[in-house]
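Worked example

This section walks through a single chain of length 478. The input is the sequence exactly as stored; nothing has been trimmed or padded.
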Amino acid sequence: MRSTLALLTLGFLAACGDDGTNHLADAAPGVDGHGSADAAIDGPALPVRLTVTLDGAPAAGVKTYFLNADSSVVSNTLTGSDGTASAVMAAGGSVTAIEPIQPAAFAVPVTQNRLDTFAGVKPGDDLHLDLGGFGQPPPPVTFQVVVPNDLVAAHYQLNTPCGSVSLDPPVLLGIAANNPPVSVTLSGCPATADVLVETLDTNFAPLSSILVTAAPIANDTTLTVAGPYVAFGTTTATYSNIPPDVTFIDTDKVLLSAQGDLFSTSAGTSIGGGSATATVALAVPPAAQVVGATQVVGTSPSRQGAVFDRQTLVDWGSPSDTFTLDVGASLLQDYTTSPSLDLTTNTVTWTPATTGLAPDAVLAAVAFSRSTNTAQDNWSWRIAAPGSATGAVRYPTLPTDVFDFAPQATDGAFVEEASTAKIPGGYDAIRAHVFSSDFLAPPAGTTGHVAVTQIQNVKLRRASTRNHGPLPVYTRRK
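Given that input, the structure is written out below as tokens.
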């Protein structure tokens, strides 16, 4: 999945240096990362496979555990040269990968690890995990852009899938059909991309736009945009069945092309006197101008309660100048207590409300620290699991050949995230790529709806913002 709801893996591996960068050990001789010889031979015919990459390239030597639901070991292995490991196992077990991150040595050695666990796996699963890293950024592209002069505009902006930049020209001495060329620099752009030229008034409120499909993006070229500008219209978001504890509704709208986002804006409205209906107006390019794009609308109701969690409802489909949503029928179970970790059972728990939709999926993250007189060990552990209507997700008990990750009473532990989601297709639809996507992003399909509940200290960050409003799309912080 990928959107507005925009919201940690580790261990010790041989051959890890202490220069502060990620290191991956070589695969174990003769193993090649494809499960162990003692994996159950009488289990299901289809294996569970995990593919690990580092900046898109196969990551060999990543410690991987395939465990049954009771944490008994099916396979304890390393990924092979192709970045994969696999094992035949029953449904309901877990797969955990450990990524070592070791900073420079201190007087007291400090070890940092990050772990990712896919829980509730099924035979035939093809799981994917990208460790990220510090790969080289794509080279920037610098080119000239010429846009038509708009007599009522104070500012011009170029919106592309690889960034948004100002096109404000130097002071014009006369009125010309086109503004003078403006040099822009973008990074990570495809060779051709859909772009949107936008005009704004003195307060940076949008006025009009020009959509250019398949515009060439290359160094030392000039992109000349032909008019006319199309005046912005208004999308009216109409909300009904608003629960009485909702005091405010934020609405975000983004338009996506095949390469990425073209435009985003946001607005909000207060809900007074327990009103069960509300409308929000958003200034956007009219639907007729952006035929072929995807519209994503993110709705975030602010609710009164003892626990400050956040729900975001995400709907996507063809561009439209109207949007309607039954808020009460779309909300997930709220949190009535903050998530906490039970160190004796290694379980993150919270108390869900008795009303609202039950979630399909849970994603939790806990940061641990353990100090001794001779060492400091820190690790961060994410787990994705099927939804829990009772408010609990339990970590597996891992083997101790790398490190004893089972919580101890003296450990420091902090729940960084406990998010729940209602998703088209349920947990099965997102399990394979759950750590490289976002609960808040639209999955495949021309239309759909996602609901996500996040606790206050959730590890999410907004994507880059525009002058006239934030994107409704979020991406998970690595």
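What to look for: Confidence is low (pLDDT under 50) at residues 1-41, 456-478.
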